[in-house]
Design a protein that fits this description.
The longest helix has 16 residues. It is built from 3 helices and 11 strands, in the order E-E-E-E-E-E-E-H-E-E-E-E-H-H. The chain has 2 domains: about 35 residues, no CATH class; about 140 residues, Nucleoside Triphosphate Pyrophosphohydrolase, CATH 3.90.79.10. The protein is an alpha+beta fold. It starts with 8 loop residues before the first strand and ends in a 6-residue tail after the last helix. The mean pLDDT is about 95.
Amino acid sequence: MTDIPKIWKKIRTTDLADYTVFSVHRVDAQSPRTNKVLPFHVVRCADWINVFPITADGRIVMVRQYRHGTEQVTLEIPGGLIEPGEDPVRAAHREMIEETGYDSARVIQIGFVNPNPAFMTNRCHTFLAPRVEYVRKQTQDCGEDIHVVLVPLDEIPELVANGTITHALIVAAAYQFQLYIDRNPDWNK
């Protein structure tokens, strides 16, 4: 039987910086194995959502947008921060409508991931929105330039394999989505 690592004792937390969408903290924690107190840096961020909006004819409503980190245009599913006090399901509807103009009567949570548990505190929740319909024009904020693209569902594995879809959270969401539809053959009814 494998031993389970013990929880480290937090000695102190020092706030270092606040950048609106995330904050950085130094955490001094004591190793349960060595008793040494070591510094770690932690990024606190609100939870995120992403959503697979699927049309009745089997196309995913995706978005193309410029990303400053990689300095490239990416192909992604809609997503964003969960606002303080906002329910993740509500956030999924809101982000989907804001970024694409599409909405669905149902939004189903299909999983979550920890984006990087080594230094980030948040989760990214993945949702499925079956049978979406166009309901209104996008409402992008001044920092967004999002272009909507309808992609046939069966093209997603190849778009991941050939490097068109490279955003790690979208690749993880695509896997969760595939697991969900494999286990729920009537998902689009």
